Amino acid sequence: MAVHDLVKRFGPVAAVDGVSLSVAPGEFVALLGPSGSGKTTILMAIAGFEYPTSGRVEIGGEDVTWAPANKRNLGMVFQRYTLFPHMTVAENIAFPLKMRGVAKAERERRALAALETVRLGGYGGRRTNQLSGGQQQRIALARAIVYQPRVLLMDEPLSALDKNLREEMQLEIKHLQQQLGVTVVFVTHDQTEAMTMADRVAVLDHGRLQQVGAPRELYETPATPFVAGFIGETNFLAGRAVAAAAPGEIRAVDLDGGGRVGAVAVDRLAAGTALRIAVRPERVRLAPPAGGMAATLVEAIYAGVATTLIADLGSERRVRARLAAGVDERQWAAGEAVDLAWRPEDARAFAADRAG
Ligand SMILES: Nc1ncnc2c1ncn2[C@@H]1O[C@H](COP(=O)(O)OP(=O)(O)OP(=O)(O)O)[C@@H](O)[C@H]1O
Ligand SMILES: [Mg+2]
Fold it and tell me: Tens digit of pLDDT for each residue in 323-351?
């Protein structure tokens, strides 16, 4: 399925501002972005619950932009369980089949099979209010897959669940999707959830697509400062390009406030271009002072799996370094003088005046 140049305005607000995205059959794509970035609006346009201001929606090669929702054959699961309280679990799951005129015996057979798929065989006779949150969400999933939709749309289906159950369900849904081979568009504002579940993640900000890519690609090679800051943690430092660079080339950068470092140009840079470099905390190396980039440790935060060190470079510049437990067992203390370094290929330089 795909959306092409999708725009949705609500009065003066462009909730979705020219988004194009293709999802391959059997692919799991997550729409990730902060609150208000347009995720739900895109899903609603795909589902047919909202019509776009302009642009197209395509499913199975067919233009469905103006097709009514019930003609699109899509499965939907939302944040809040939208089960019918007056029906049993089995009746809930069979409901979409009933709407499609499937005979009773066949409905029952398929509802039971869907229940088995979500590992709730034996729960068919229960009332929905006799189920836990996670069970209800699995029933909602069973109801969405029972008629074998072409595409499954999910809008924050796990956000009402506690952390442990949520992490369990993330893997469960992902495995189920792989097993069924269904195409999924999954909305979340949780980057870990998106990275755990999706083949590709589409990052949105203010209704615009910032980058689409595999989780590793987004994390290792963010295309914009927004993506660098939204996915994982990043140190940003301002500076200027020492020499011109084409995208992908490594160049020296003079940091505002002093210090010269290397970084990979993301944008085309002219000599003297004002830029921002982004470097991940786990890529920052600390060493005893030896004439490198001098800093003072401000704080060492021990958190079991890793220790975060906050170093002051002077001129109101702070850099976070993360040391994984078991890798560097040296104990660092606040107030120590240190040298900071990173490999030039681990720092990315964005032109400061770029859009996004
Ligand atoms: N029916 C509507 N009328 C007016 N404005 C709307 C409507 N629906 C959404 N918006 C606006 O469009 C923008 C995008 O909203 P949307 O619900 O798509 O965001 P979202 O990314 O799903 O956010 P969240 O993570 O909070 O669910 C927001 O600024 C929102 O206020
Ligand atoms: Mg939303």
Answer: 998 887 788 899 999 999 999 999 999 99
Asked if the structure places residue 356 within a domain, the reply is: no
Q: What is the bridge-based pairing of β-strands 2-10 and 13-22?
A: antiparallel
CA 106/CA 110 separation, integer angstroms? 6
Q: Using one digit for the tens of pLDDT, what is the confidence trace for 129-162?
A: 999 988 998 999 999 999 889 999 999 999 888 8
CATH code: domain of residue 335: 2.40.50.140
Confidence class for position 355, pLDDT limits 50, 70, 90:
low
Q: Does 30 map to a domain? A: yes
33 lines ligand 1 (CB under 6 A): yes
12 lines ligand 1 (CB under 6 A): no
Q: Determine which residue's CA is closest to atom 16 belonging to ligand 1.
A: 38
Q: Which of 8, 37, 191, 210 to mutate to test the pocket of ligand 1 (most atoms within 8 A of CB)?
A: 37
Other residues' Cβ atoms within 10 Å of the Cβ of residue 31:
29
Residue 268 CB: number of other CB atoms within 10 A?
A: 12
Domain with residue 30: its CATH number is 3.40.50.300
Q: Going by CA atoms, what residue is nearest to atom 19 of ligand 1?
A: 36
Please tell me the distance between residue 188's alpha carbon and the centre of ligand 2 in angstroms.
8
Query: Which ligand 1 atom is nearest residue 43's CA?
Result: 18
User: For the purposes of burial, counting CB atoms within 10 Å of the CB of 237, is it exposed (0-12), middle (13-18) or buried (19 or more)?
Assistant: buried
Range of the domain at 89: 2-225
Nearest CA-CA partner of 227 in 238, 245, 213, 240: 213
Are residues 59 and 105 located together in one domain of the fold? yes
